[in-house]
Amino acid sequence: MIRVPQVRVVDEDGSQLGVMPTVEALRLAQEKGVDLVEVAPMAAPPVTRLLDYGQYKYEQTRREKEARRHQRSVEFKEIRLSPKIGKGDFDTKVRRATQFLEDGDRIKVSCRFRGRELTHAYLGRDLLLKFAEQVGEHGAIERQPLLEGKSMWLVITSTHKPKSHAAGPTDDGAGAPLPVPPLPVAPASGLGAAPDEAPPAPPPAGD
Question: I want to staple 107 with a disulfide (CB 3.0 to 4.6 A). Which of 43, 156, 174, 195 is the partner?
Fold first, then answer.
């Protein structure tokens, strides 16, 4: 509900109707059979618009779904190595990393040291750089090897175009990016939210 004494009103077609008392703006919306929606509440005075709030929310939801459908989602995967990794395991990790990079994902490659291995941290650095070299046709180093506690890691960015795919668990337990929720806009006339998109009609019954 709009609680300020006056508002700036924009008509359905986008034309400016000027500043008027809120009561008058609500009366005008009622006469037109539409809602008075606050679109810029922080302005002085707040900016409102005459529109069908239900249709407005429906179109907004549809546009948001369309945007998410075409969003280039970049996953972040993690590959874990150890200073004493064998050649077979190393090659397997390289193949898995190559698959991730071909999908357009970023990769965090880490090497964890145990006990006295930390005194030879340079071996982990050499291992990480060797790994990055093995996948060099599909990615480039975004962050050079960094030692944090008992782990050293680097980040490799894909040189391929990201594929649009749903977020899911990674091979090594990496997470997925969080969506940003849209800002809500409330109608002044107290109408409910717009109806959801209608479900698809069932197929006709067979003979």
Answer: 156
Query: What six digits make up the tokens of 154?
Result: 């680097």
Stated pTM of the model: 0.46
* C-alpha–C-alpha distance, residues 41 and 185, integer Å: 10
pLDDT tens figures, 141-171:
999 999 999 999 999 999 987 765 544 444 4
**Domain match, 54 and 115 both:** no
In terms of domains, do 93 and 150 share one?
yes
CATH number, domain at 41? 3.10.20.80
Q: Do residues 43 and 81 share a domain? A: no
Give per-residue pLDDT as tens, 188-201. Answer: 544 444 444 444 55
Amino acid making up residue 207: D
